[in-house]
């Protein structure tokens, strides 16, 4: 079995940004993604009401150069104005051709 080393980008944000973030990561080169609802506490505190909607976690596996492009885009466009965090991890995947 061959494993291919790629990057998993994880983005946690306000749910209202979901469609916009998904469109951005697809446009920047991601071929797929997984979205889940999440909760937690961070530098902006715990959400006190449901009217804002839940938080989401978007995960995508991409080539290293695309990971850097996505992280740079998020940093430039979202970090200042929205409750968005993002990070990358190195992962080893089976059928690596599905992701690049």
UniProtKB/TrEMBL annotation:
GO process terms (BP): regulation of nitrogen utilization
Record InterPro entries: N-reg_PII (IPR002187), N-reg_PII-like_a/b (IPR011322), N-reg_PII/ATP_PRibTrfase_C (IPR015867)
Single Gene Ontology MF annotation: enzyme regulator activity
Taxonomy, superkingdom: Bacteria
SUPFAM superfamilies cross-referenced by the UniProt entry: GlnB-like (SSF54913)
Protein name: Nitrogen regulatory protein PII
